[in-house]
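Hey L., structure's done. Input below.
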Amino acid sequence: MLREQRSLINLYLDVDPECRKKIIKELKSKSGLSWTGLAKFLGVCRSMVLFYNSGACRLPYSSFQKLCKLANIPLANFSFKLIEIINKPRVVSIPHLTE
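Output:
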């Protein structure tokens, strides 16, 4: 189950720009919340929601599910693909200090 949860964390919507804007606009209007209200509901800042809308950042699948539930819209109403993005940790080597 832990592997299943971890994979859900890394899933994002992969849709074209017009479809993405349409999805977010519809979810926003059906929920009746402002941009700030959506941000508070998702636990992110307002600018992050605007980044999702503009395409600067991909919308996480978990956030998409929450918004669909809030707006009472089934996930099947939307056409989208999911992609998995895994961020690899960076190893920083600290050089040995000399005199």
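The first helix runs from residue 2 to 9. Residues 1-6 have pLDDT under 50 and may be disordered.

-- N.
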